[in-house]
Amino acid sequence: MTREVRTVVFDADLELEAYRFEGIMQKFPNHFHDYYVIGFIEQGKRLLHCHHEEYILNSGDVVIFNPYDPHACEQIDGGTLDYRCINIQPEVMRQYVQEIAGVDYLPCFTPTVLYRSELAASLRELHLMISEGHSDFQKEELLLFLLEQLLREDSDLSAPGPSREPASEIKRICEYIESHFAESITLDQLSQLAGLSKYHLLRSFTKQKGISPYSYLATIRINHAKKLLEQGMPPIDVALQTSFSDQSHFTNYFKKLIGLTPKQYARVFIHGSGAQQSTEITV
């Protein structure tokens, strides 16, 4: 018998739920939710009925249900379903729309299915952060960018008009990050420091620097982590010194930027100092 996994996590920082279904065969009858659902198919082939339309869903397809959208679905390939989604209550969605677009509005997202959408990768990354309990503002940054794209491209909400690009405020944020990288930094702190909404800060920073605020912070932390590893500090202590949320997060980000794990990188400097080292590492 196929093992089914059904998990739900509530993220108090983002005020939303993250659902995960693995190995599901269940057929869901026609029903609706009183909240927004943004999900994607990890694996499986599913027949979806929504608003008198039929959709064939496959891996990488994103589905969006507005509150009270009636829908039903069932497996059609004889296999199982792996699915992840986030659920956002209307009052919370209203807050995010206010943050992003500056209007008090509940959007209607269309279409119901985004086939082979690039957003599936962002959704998966966000879902993993929530499931693993990450406390860094990376997850809030990712959520705001995700919602901004959906609001701009797939909703009935008009895109916000151009606004002044705050160069001096962005410079202030960079200087703050460089001076306080070893501390816990929140998006709320950066927003207050710049005098900008969180979304305006994210958009302006990314446009001017070519990198998001969290990626800028993480890069600064990784650069300092390299120096500590070169000096022989154990990776677990380096993660703490550079204020990553946990060692796993530190290791994953380090490998993403450097191409080696912290332990593999540190191994290069074990055999002595003062001379260039060359170490072959099997990954």
UniProtKB/TrEMBL annotation:
Keyword Transcription regulation attached: yes
Highest taxon above the source species: Bacteria
Signal peptide annotation: none
CDD domains tied to this protein: cupin_YbfI-like_N
Domain HTH araC/xylS-type per the UniProt entry, residue ranges: 171-268
InterPro entries per the UniProt record, alphabetical: AraC-bd, AraC_XylS_family_regulators, Homeodomain-like_sf, HTH-like, HTH_AraC, RmlC-like_jellyroll
Alphabetical keyword list: DNA-binding, Transcription, Transcription regulation
Name of this chain's protein: AraC-like DNA-binding protein/mannose-6-phosphate isomerase-like protein (Cupin superfamily)
